[in-house]
């Protein structure tokens, strides 16, 4: 027997299972003011969980926004962990730093870099990161994956937001550029022999994949 689809009430219950505090609410309010679409609380809880399970010390985030996703990530990371977050909008990063300050996060734990992701990522250290979270230009997702595979240590995880893209990815009739890019990314991740993939139906979809350990690793 096929399982029944999750009903809207259950999906909402799951999304709100881990509640957000006033600091996250304030960061979310700033996002609305400047027209940024912040991740939902379900995606945030998943990111915090991943960062915690990985005992993440070094995380890369593509798409700082006003700090909503960064707050979730930092709360899951080790106390000495550093978040490197990249965004092309310097003003958004200023608002994110305000959110981090309100949360009591030490300034040295959040490194904000203003610039285009594909200009910044090549300057970061190979094999140094535990988690890479991608929430930038959907048409660049395949390029982000290539960079993430270089940046991640074996056993690290890459995560992509909007993996369902407002129900468009599952509909083959939808052929706009963003939808096709996300659909192609999913196929690439699912077929990649060096990744263990999973598509989580939280928020607007969260595609996650673990970078496998090399067979000849000690």
From TrEMBL:
Keyword S-adenosyl-L-methionine: yes
A GO molecular-function descriptor: S-adenosylmethionine-dependent methyltransferase activity
InterPro entries for this protein: Cation-dep_OMT (IPR050362), SAM-dependent_MTases_sf (IPR029063), SAM_O-MeTrfase (IPR002935)
One of the GO BP terms on file: methylation
CDD domains referenced in this protein's UniProt entry, alphabetically: AdoMet_MTases
Keyword S-adenosyl-L-methionine: yes
Protein name listed in UniProt: Methyltransferase domain-containing protein
Taxonomic source organism: Nocardioides agri
Lineage: Bacteria, Bacillati, Actinomycetota, Actinomycetes, Propionibacteriales
């Amino acid at each position: 027997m096929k399982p029944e689809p999750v009903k809207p009430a259950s999906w909402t219950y799951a999304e709100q299972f881990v509640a957000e505090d006033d600091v996250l609410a304030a960061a979310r309010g700033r996002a609305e003011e400047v027209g940024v679409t912040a991740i939902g609380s379900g995606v945030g809880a998943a990111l915090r969980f991943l960062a915690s399970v990985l005992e993440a010390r070094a995380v890369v985030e593509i798409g700082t926004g006003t700090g909503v996703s960064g707050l979730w990530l930092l709360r899951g990371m080790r106390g000495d962990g550093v978040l490197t977050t990249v965004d092309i909008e310097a003003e958004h990063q200023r608002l994110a730093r305000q959110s981090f300050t309100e949360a009591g996060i030490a300034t040295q734990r959040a490194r904000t870099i203003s610039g285009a992701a594909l200009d910044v990522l090549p300057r970061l250290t190979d094999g140094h990161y535990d988690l890479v979270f991608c929430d930038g230009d959907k048409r660049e997702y395949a390029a982000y994956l290539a960079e993430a595979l270089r940046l991640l240590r074996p056993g690290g995880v890459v995560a992509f937001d909007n993996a369902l893209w407002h129900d468009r990815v599952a509909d083959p009739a939808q052929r706009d550029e963003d939808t096709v890019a996300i659909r192609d990314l999913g196929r690439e991740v699912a077929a990649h022999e060096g990744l263990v993939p999973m598509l989580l139906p939280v928020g607007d979809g969260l595609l996650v994949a673990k970078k496998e350990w090399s067979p000849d690793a000690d």
